[in-house]
Amino acid sequence: SCLPSLAPLVASAAAQPTLIAPMTPTPVTATLQGSAVGTVDLNYRLSSGASFTTVAMSAQGGGVYGANLPGANCGDAPEWFFSVTDVACGFYQTASFFAEVGVETVVAFDDFESDLGWAVGGPNDDATTGLWELGDPLGTGAQPENDFTAAGTDCWFTGQGSPGGSVGENDVDGGQTTLTSTVIDLSGGDARIGYWRWYSNDAGSTPNADIFVVEVSNGGAWDNVETVGPAGAGTSGGWVYHEFIVSDHVTPNATVQVRFVASDEGQGSIVEAAVDDFKVFDVTCGEVCQPSIGFGGPGSGVLSLCGGDLSTGTSADLDLVGASSSGTAFVFAGVVNSPTPAKGGLLVPVPWLLNFAVPLDGSGAFTLSVPGGMGPLTVYVQAVYTDGGQPNGYGFSNALAAQFLP
């Protein structure tokens, strides 16, 4: 059968990257299952509205196929899906996947393996059982057996039962229970907050009747981050990751806090919640270095172009280091990569469109600011410098393939 429920090609969203480092090829995989036979392709584009590029994936064994997403620039929005032309079912494609380009920097992390001062209780709390507690949970049909931390045991969860006890022995009953984070100092700027949550409310005499609420505050009113339930995804247990940008909800300041509220209101039902691996982090594109394509020497000068992604409004520093002391460098730039013998080395940008002299300092270095824009355009850049220690009197740096963006 070729029904969607028997899809020949499977790609889990959980297994796909959501954050891609700038200018770094990123591996992705899909699985060809059952008796499906055919060619498997990766279809990708780096910006919305662009045409998709299709590349064949390689078999890695066990029905798994792999390929690399190409290096993406800051500001790109990678999107991809997988497809197969099966001999029996014809063409089939998966859902699309999306990723952000950047680098994650963790500001604070709490895996709850020790008590860092989170607080249980709130002005409206009235639950009679199932209050939040920190420890190693005993698994039931509604509560996790294990925390999420790979090398840990503890998390915050709602009520510990006894070994072999019933599923509802110490679940949330009679109202709500609140867990509030320690104070997070974001006086230095915005951040993201991520956490793994567990919530189950689909058992008992009145299933799918309650909600799990996450809120954030900067010392004033609490703003809703997410409400899980009363029905739908995330209400049957299992660890689920969620993150949010603080400024989307409150103004970042020195007194930011997050709270988690689980409740069983009205008629009794089985309600359990848990939280683990809470982190505060930034995602920035960071410094992008344009790729070197070699061809350096003679001499020890090294050329780099690092900084912004060379889109309009950004800039990057063109640096030469390791050249001859207090000499002169000549910077060549062009749009053709054609290594040509010259003065004992290989000059890459031939013919060149730009050539100018730059004095070297006492350490044999210079720095120039290069504005972005003008793209998409690849410009090959190389420095040739005076060097009395070389047979022909000149040293050659490596060449760069600078990717200028719109």
Number of helices: 0
Helix content: under 10%
Beta-strand fraction estimate: over 45%
- Given helix and strand content, the structural type is mainly beta
List keywords for this structure.
0% helix; 48% strand; 406 residues; mainly beta; 6-stranded antiparallel β-sheet; single chain
Commentary on this structure:
This protein is mostly beta strands and 406 residues long. It has strands at residues 9-10, 19-20, 26-32, 38-45, 53-56, 58-61, 64-69, 79-86, 90-93, 97-98, 100-101, 103-110, 119-120, 132-135, 155-158, 175-180, 192-203, 212-217, 223-228, 240-245, 257-264, 270-284, 288-289, 292-294, 302-307, 315-321, 328-334, 337-342, 345-349, 354-359, 366-371, 377-386, 394-396, 399-404. The strands form 8 sheets. Strands 12, 14, 15, 17, 20 and 22 form a 6-stranded antiparallel sheet that branches.
What can be said about this structure in brief?
The chain is built from no helices and 34 strands. It is an all-beta fold and 406 residues long. The strands form 8 sheets. Strands 12, 14, 15, 17, 20 and 22 form a 6-stranded antiparallel beta sheet that branches.
Write the layout of secondary structure elements.
Elements: E1 9-10, E2 19-20, E3 26-32, E4 38-45, E5 53-56, E6 58-61, E7 64-69, E8 79-86, E9 90-93, E10 97-98, E11 100-101, E12 103-110, E13 119-120, E14 132-135, E15 155-158, E16 175-180, E17 192-203, E18 212-217, E19 223-228, E20 240-245, E21 257-264, E22 270-284, E23 288-289, E24 292-294, E25 302-307, E26 315-321, E27 328-334, E28 337-342, E29 345-349, E30 354-359, E31 366-371, E32 377-386, E33 394-396, E34 399-404
Parallel strand pairs: 2-11
Antiparallel strand pairs: 1-3, 3-7, 4-5, 4-8, 6-7, 8-9, 8-10, 12-22, 13-16, 14-15, 15-22, 16-21, 17-20, 17-22, 18-19, 18-21, 23-25, 24-34, 25-26, 26-31, 27-30, 27-32, 28-29, 32-33, 32-34
